[in-house]
Amino acid sequence: MINIDTSTLFAPIVIKGHPVKNRLSVAPMTRITATEDGRATETMSRYYERFARGGFGAVTTEGIYTDQAFSQGYISQPGMTDEAQASAWKPVVNGIKAHGALAIAQLMHAGAISQGNRFRDTTVGPSPIQPKGEQMTFYDGKDRYVLPSTMTEEQIADAITGFAGSAARAIEVAGFDAIEIHGANGYLLDQFLTDYANTRMDRWGGATENRVRLILETFKAVRAEVGANVPVGVRISQGKVNDYHHKWAGAESDAEIVFGSLADAGADFIHVTEFEACKPAFAEGGPSLMRLAKRYAPKAAIFANGSLHNVEQAVAALNDGADVVTIARGALANPDLPKRWSSNIALEEFDPTILGPIANIKETELAM
Domains, the chain, ranges and CATH? Predict the structure, then answer.
């Protein structure tokens, strides 16, 4: 039973003119359940609708690939690259909205850590550096990541255009309410931000101000495409799917550059993710990443992710800079988590076998 005041979790918030009924959101989670040609499925519609029916104020999709070149990261990943893919998302969005939740499309380019792309046999990244770690087997990966080719100016421009065009289709065709640009977790935009992955000597590399440029240019292109009234945000992390413990070399000065530049660009929300969101981002006893995001981007709504499925931690996050708490593992185990918390019902424990041997959506989940 819950012996803590949870009222702050159920207070409404308005993001770029869009009311959100509470401070609980489903975090983006890759589930590789689309068709081979990247269309969302009926299984996905049922999966996402459960979260909205369970009381979440917002639901963010898994990463959606953005072009028919190098962006796809996984076999059976959904895309937003053409009318057919965009139209396939309509039932998913309708199911989310039917229960009063904000529907957020997360747009993603895998870059150098792509491990399954039906359009290309090769990968690209900021520099010809083999990514750390090994491909994820539960997303059909095998062996090491391959050595990427260095992106040309034309390819960078094409990647930006892919994000912008997909954002427009997500809003105008699929009917999403908001866009989240995936600038985290080791994917392309984060590769440009990461010092050891980006050794370029041009305007895209070097100082942190240059390495964050691709995130900012992508944001500006998406904003120009969807207009001033659509909430547009960016997901930011230090750690990556292939380098869990990475920290920014510049520590808080890097945080000031990254979050401050997003604030200057006009980001409506910033989604920060750490393994444990409430812990110091850098030195022991120092501020968390969500606190730093709020400090340097005070007008943006701060979404925080990372081990916040414990109600005490979720409330603590709202007291430490977060405006919205996003939940992954806890939501998989409890699609009705907000209703459980509001009714003081204990949560089910997360069962990691849900994600094995392949992390696609299981029928057993849809019965929850």
Answer: 7-366 (3.20.20.70)
